[in-house]
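Box 3.1 A note on notation
Throughout this textbook, protein chains are presented in two layers. The first layer is the amino acid sequence; the second is a token string describing backbone geometry. Keep the layers aligned when reading.
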Amino acid sequence: MHRLEPPHRYLMGPGPSPVEGSVLAAQAKPIVGHLDPYFLKVMDDVSAGLRTVFQTANQMTFPASGTGSAGMEMAVHNLVEPGDVFVVGVNGVFGGRMAEVAKRAGAEVIAVDAPWGEAVSTDRLAETARRHHAKVVGVVHAETSTGVRQPIEELRPALGPEPLLLVDAVTSLGGIEIQVDEWGIDACYSGTQKCLSVPPGLAPVTFSDRAVHAVARRSEPVRSWYLDLNLLAAYWKDGSAARAYHHTAPISAIYGLHEGLRLVLAEGLESRWRRHSDTGRFLQDGLERLGFEMVAPAEHRLPQLTAARFPDGVDDAKARASLLHDHQIEIGGGLGPFAGSVWRVGMMGAGAKREHAIRLLQAIPAVIR
């Protein structure tokens, strides 16, 4: 074993994003017990901060222990029972993953597909949900595999009041506008390692009262003990003097999230959204000047995660390796049908800076020759 000395990288891939020094320092603070009064106050602060970032008053808002995929598992396995109809929009890897998780939970899954690079039709989602009497409709707000933004704000008016609306906000939370309460979202999950700029390991989640009641009325227990919302509620209930032990919380990770949320709120949500928009547009304009083609149309294009087809003749693996080793820049390759033809560039959280975009744009001509 040797002492770790990780190299410095410009993290411009689909995640993780760069982490501020104060967040790393927070994670090195002294450990206290997971039921220590000091830590319970930290938990309350984190839940309150997440409510602001999610734009919700939901009592049941907290960071689940695990990455964004744990948030997906938690949301799906709590809301879905065997035989329930689950309608899911699939236009990339993570919509497909949500469908797979729902199948494993025993749901009758009905996928509403769209070509990669396009948003899923709101009308088709609503019509399918009505026709099949869906209990849950699931969509990905920011599809990380394609750079597409799904217009979540259109869904509740189209769906009507009945189905529970589940939203994957792993790549959107803290980077673009999301309004959980105003948009009628019943359950939403995210990850810390994208636009919140906190190391991976926690999955912020929020559940509406309606969703919490649906979980409480289940006819059988949630199949995952670790992710059972009914059990976790007794530990994460704000201000409770008699919190019930469930599992040992990742204390240092929650310290880091506390500091990350403090930085987000100090900047202000609208200012943060605007910064991501401005830097993303700057990067995309520069890539187009270099001969790249954006995958998503402008009206559904994410600013914080750009999927772009590189020019013909570029050796994908060689070019990205040169960016990493010669320029210390990490970007992501394409997934699925986009493998070998698309790059995914993240401008997220602390990495959403014009100088980072300039560094990449200046390096690209040399590596794609």
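DSSP finds twelve helices and 15 strands in the chain. The mean pLDDT is 97.
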